[in-house]
């Protein structure tokens, strides 16, 4: 790692060659020259941030980049260097506490990362060396080592597959930890490799490490031969492979996209409020410095008889003295900046996140998992979401496919049962007694049995006893096959659609028996076994949206079977065939089914020879291999005959419609971003109630662009203006709106909007498009590529007002939009989505409670916490400022240094922390039943300048009340029975006591007034413990600190001051009266304030509206 970083720093990467040579087993092909193994990085994975040696300097550097910490460091240094009125301990100890707590938290998190790294790096693996199997730690694998991996083990590095235990030289892997897809993928051994690996003498010439998971440029090798680190071996006893990329050069390590730092709206508000309080601090220091020199300019005030200046003071430069006085006042008032707020906020977020993981409603018994919090920094953002971007397949739907019906030559077929006419076919329209129709049916079923990459699951001891199951996307699905029990079989597939189609063919009498040595076997309805030689597989890709196989029958006929989306199949078949099928396809799509069209083609010997030569040549290409393959695929997949189409159902997730309805009721706009076709996605939106029957749909797709008969860009401009006039310009006010609009756009049209040929047009199109979408109730974006999903999220996130966005998806293609949004949530499936999301929930229905209940409460709690911290520090330091007007601006502290140090750490932080963790101003049931309550806190309502001004004025009122109330008490100097006079430290102690008791009583009052209308069930022992405990600790500390003569103190300012103060009845009376007077405005505000909003009456008996 160090060598690589130095190379990059010194520009070494520029001199790197484009390829690397790997010697299999570290055996050189040359017998004459000495073998010098090339140097590659080791197999260690490093995800940790710190080491034992750099933790302290690196962590301190990162912490002091935070403005508040750096500010208090400067104040501490000023106190050490300059003669200031307060001890350096008053600033140094709170700063040390904050830095230490944060360092412990970050050190613990990094220790967990080290622990996870060690689990991977120390994992035992089997390496073949000189014919012997040697167990090594994973981190000791080198490039060129031959590694053996057994079933259900993960690959320790990127391997080229050399040998497999399967007869067909294939193996199956799942890549859920890489791309979120838990389905099985087929990989192939290197062709013509010696079976005896001990005698294998070979080299591999391949490209340098690249992050692309799906491509690999290597002589005669491709991604189908590459086994990626982190993937898991399935349904194969063992494999052997040679390590080509190790450690931080594996595709998994290179592909990991570090999360960008997401800052919450609360953090931005804190920074803004902090700047205001910094201005207040500087203003106070300037005012006091100015007034000090104005006051000292009067005769006799600068050098009174009792305080003559020393010669050094007289010789000091006036401006230097003014500057040091300014710094001294800054130090004296610096506690207006709440340094402990940051650590308290972090603790609140960290501890508060456990309420999500502990919520039993989020537990899913199917996968035996609950919610997961990957970052606690965004808890409050869950209560501020304005836009939700969701994937469709696997998120809104279950991604559990079931074959529903098919259409052959325009005739609709539905499955009835196995013993009905035509072996299970029920024809609902058209004739069925023609021999030609039966031949077409059988051809269609053969296509379903042959055109796929499904594998029959190998029998294991468990499966032989329990029956085989299908393994798709990590879930087992019992095979519903109308066949005898001994013929039941399970399937492994790269897509749930493929298993559904193979099982659909099995229902109608055609059973896929498996692939052995490039021979595919199927059992017909007549119980005849047919064998086809598999010549080529033209793999599916999202651009072509289809896949094909080329097979040869026993009679010598060469056939190409192709299945894919209607948009990719229809242009490649005869149009008269399309018209017979199109109506059924559109009807099935409208009903919400996923449709695929099936076509075939006979290949002549010349056509096949040409295709075979082209495919082999393209697969050997080192450059532009994918483009060459796609060109050959497109040449072969032309002139086909359309047989029919299939309809597969992907059912909605549990409570999907209710969840979407609740989110819309909360004022959240939901956008569906999917790669599916428009008709299917549109029907899903109707089923989820995102589109209502009265919703007017504004469609901007390739179909609508082609309707006008003009150039597409002209038509795009015309439609955008038309929709903008309808949805934006002519739209009634929100409250009077009677017409809801829904917007539909596809990927091709979105590319035209975002990437217009003219830059000015592109910007204008984007603005029009965004305004239209923001005025629509819901938006459907279909045929989306992953990058386009992220582009849409980014466009909305950066729009006017910077709305808070949330993305939820379950697959690798959703990771980009999850990372782009303010808050990312993982849905049902992949592990990569889990790793990159901020929160992970098992099911879509949990999103409702996560946002409307947890999010609402998190935001209200932290908003109170932030405002309260600024308020209590203003209350604390304002009497200190006012005291300067009565002490000749001499920088005399009002409070003892111990009180200054302990105020934020011990006396006032814990009660508000407990309050911000446990407070429920509205119970969760009410929040879930009334989604409109979410709107009351939208757009950062509780941290705007209005509430901030309220809290600031409240702090000013309390500060003035405390100071002048105690001063009124001191108008009679003899406050004790013996006539003893109180001094300035007694004055400050009384003010401080009133302050601490008022702050605790304020929390008590907030909780009591909030919960009187509800009940006291939210009063926990924790609340009682921290509130009463803080007061008791203050009393105990004051007695203890002032009751003992401390030898390390030069002067004992509070010796018996607290005890003498409490012996005065007048002092007790003033303390009680000032506490009641300070709470009176809030009590009156709550008592006389009328509940507002549409649900005010029904909620009056359940909760009290927010006080502030």
Structure summarized in a few sentences:
The protein is of the alpha+beta class and 1108 residues long.
User: Separation of termini?
Assistant: 54 Å
Rounded to the nearest angstrom, the radius of gyration is 37 Å
The overall strand count is 34
Beta-strand residue fraction: 15-25%
pLDDT averaged over residues: 77
* Regions with little confidence, pLDDT below 50 for 5+ residues: 1-16, 417-424, 460-488, 1007-1017, 1092-1108
Total helices: the number is 37
Indicate the overall shape: elongated
Largest sheet: 10 strands, antiparallel
Describe it.
With 1108 residues, the protein is of the alpha+beta class. 45% of the residues lie in helices and 17% in strands. The chain is built from 37 helices and 34 strands. The strands form seven sheets. A ten-stranded antiparallel β-sheet has the order 16-15-14-27-26-25-24-23-22-21, sandwiched between helices. Helix 12 (435-450) runs antiparallel to helix 14 (496-507) and helix 28 runs parallel beside helix 32 (945-969). It is elongated. The chain starts with a helix and ends in an 8-residue tail after the last helix. It is found in: Cell membrane; Early endosome; Endoplasmic reticulum membrane; Membrane. Keywords: ATP-binding, Cell membrane, Endoplasmic reticulum, Endosome, Lipid transport, Magnesium, Membrane, Metal-binding, Nucleotide-binding, Phosphoprotein, Translocase, Transmembrane, Transmembrane helix, Transport. This is Phospholipid-transporting ATPase. Its EC number is 7.6.2.1. The active site is at residue 391.
